[in-house]
């Protein structure tokens, strides 16, 4: 391991978390915000309404309305916006809670998020590109700590799915098709290349979405990344690589199985509907198929549950304990999403809960929500935390007048308890 990585890790492990709470902050202590490893369960969302969340011991930080971060107390389910500024209306850039983040996590008592923005300096707009920012767990003291683009807003990077992760004190981030590692807060010029070939900019600002999509993951001493590898016939396949953070070796460990091995499913031969890597296995759900796992050591794939007996189509979120499966289905309209990204799903009134060994645990009905809201069109899974499954219910209505459509937004963050089946409506926007 290079000295600088080792130094960053040691510093990260030795530094004590200090509670930060000034007069404009909220009363959330740093001990509630511990974190070191990549958090798997909160990276499972199936809805764009709620893509970024991070769980701490007592609470959950969650970005809603595309920009504002809230804190949910896990036991009481009370929700507080992450801004303690007196008289703030929480509706513009001056609000402490406004992160407009792409990715959210905790490390060493600080909230970290990733964003790209232009700052006005001496009357000029200065583009720094995408950077990682830190903030205190109470929403105060935002500052940029690490660059993520060698060339700010560089041409070929513009359309890539480049959500970085922080795992054990190291930031992993893709840039122009290449995956890099850099100790958190380090100088981008010191970033180490892990995998991939740089894609040349052609000035068109258009890249191949499939070629540029990385999905990153951390588990113990391993950092995994799923990429869409082009096959000899010009098609793309979800392919998983394992970067061993100790030996620094990168190995291809899995690719999406063929229909001859696991049967037909919604995106046969291309990508799985949802996946989760834990302890040397990849667990995956195939909408239109079943629930499987592959041993990343020997490549052996086995079916864990015949989920199609409960619902043919669906979307899923995993945790270290559960597969939570919603019986929603693909919308009839097409989707322009890149391979590996879920298409638009609608409906969903039942969640089927399985153990990671494939055992069927419980069926949870959401029908009472549909009874309560006439206009409820879909429920979408966000993540599972302990025995709570968080989801977004969308009861928005489109009205038409004189040929002009107006969308009246009405969405709810809800939570259903696996043990009791009780549904809590947590926040409405
Ligand atoms: Zn505010």
Characterise this structure.
With 429 residues, the protein is mainly β. The protein has a domain at 1-229 and 240-248: Neuraminidase (6 Propeller). The protein is built from four helices and 30 strands. A hairpin with a 5-residue loop joins strand 3 (68-73) and strand 4. The longest helix is centred in the first third of the chain and has 12 residues, at 3-14. The chain is globular. The model is unreliable at 1-23, 29-34 and 334-342 (pLDDT under 50). Zinc ion binds next to loops.
The whole-number mean of residue pLDDT values reads 86
Hetero ligands:
zinc ion
Give the neighbour order of strands across the main sheet: 1-2-3-4
Helix content percent band: under 10%
What integer value in Å does the Rg equal?
22 Å
CATH fold name of one domain: Neuraminidase
Q: Beta-strand percentage? A: 35-45%
Number of strands: 30
Low-confidence stretches: 1-23, 29-34, 334-342
Q: Largest sheet, described in full?
A: 4 strands, antiparallel
Q: Determine the N-to-C terminus distance.
A: 47 Å
What's the CATH class of one domain, please? Mainly Beta
Globally, the shape reads globular
The appropriate CATH architecture of one domain is 6 Propeller
SS class: mainly beta
Number of helices: 4
């Amino acid at each position: 391991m290079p000295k600088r990585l080792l130094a960053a890790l040691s510093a990260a492990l030795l530094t004590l978390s200090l509670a930060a709470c000034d007069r404009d902050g909220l009363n959330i202590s740093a001990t509630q915000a511990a974190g070191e490893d990549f958090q798997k369960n909160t990276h499972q969302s199936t809805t764009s309404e709620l893509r970024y969340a991070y769980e701490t011991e007592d609470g959950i930080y969650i970005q809603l309305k595309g920009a504002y971060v809230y804190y949910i107390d896990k036991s009481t389910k009370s929700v507080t916006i992450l801004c303690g500024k007196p008289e703030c209306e929480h509706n513009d850039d001056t609000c402490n809670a406004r992160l407009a983040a792409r990715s959210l996590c905790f490390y060493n008592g600080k909230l970290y998020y990733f964003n790209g923005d232009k700052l006005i300096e001496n009357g000029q707009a200065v583009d720094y590109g995408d950077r990682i920012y830190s903030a205190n767990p109470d929403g105060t003291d935002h500052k940029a700590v690490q660059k993520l683009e060698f060339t700010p807003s560089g041409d070929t990077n513009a359309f890539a799915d480049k959500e970085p992760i922080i795992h054990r004190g190291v930031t992993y981030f893709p840039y122009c098709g290449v995956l890099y590692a850099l100790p958190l807060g380090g100088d981008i010029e010191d970033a180490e290349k892990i995998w991939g070939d740089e894609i040349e900019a052609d000035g068109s600002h258009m890249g191949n979405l499939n070629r540029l999509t990385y999905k990153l993951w951390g588990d113990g001493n391993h950092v995994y990344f799923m990429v869409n590898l082009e096959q000899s016939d010009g098609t793309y396949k979800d392919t998983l690589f394992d970067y061993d953070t100790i030996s620094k070796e990168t190995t291809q460990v899995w690719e999406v199985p063929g229909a001859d091995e696991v049967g037909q499913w919604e995106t046969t031969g291309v990508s799985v509907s949802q996946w989760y890597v834990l302890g040397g296995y990849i667990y995956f759900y195939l909408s239109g198929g079943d629930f499987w796992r592959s041993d990343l050591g020997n490549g052996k794939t086995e079916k864990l549950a015949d989920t199609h007996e409960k619902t043919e189509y669906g979307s899923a979120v995993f945790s270290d304990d559960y597969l939570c499966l919603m019986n929603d289905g693909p919308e009839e309209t097409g989707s322009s999403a890149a391979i590996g990204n879920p298409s638009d799903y609608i409906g969903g009134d039942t969640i089927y809960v399985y153990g990671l060994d494939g055992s069927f645990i419980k069926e949870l009905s959401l029908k009472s929500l549909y009874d309560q809201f006439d206009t409820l069109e879909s429920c979408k899974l966000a993540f599972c935390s302990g025995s709570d499954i968080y989801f977004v219910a969308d009861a928005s209505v489109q009205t038409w007048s004189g040929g002009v459509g107006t969308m009246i937004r009405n969405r709810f963050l809800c939570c259903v308890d696996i043990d009791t089946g009780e549904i809590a409506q947590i926040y409405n926007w």
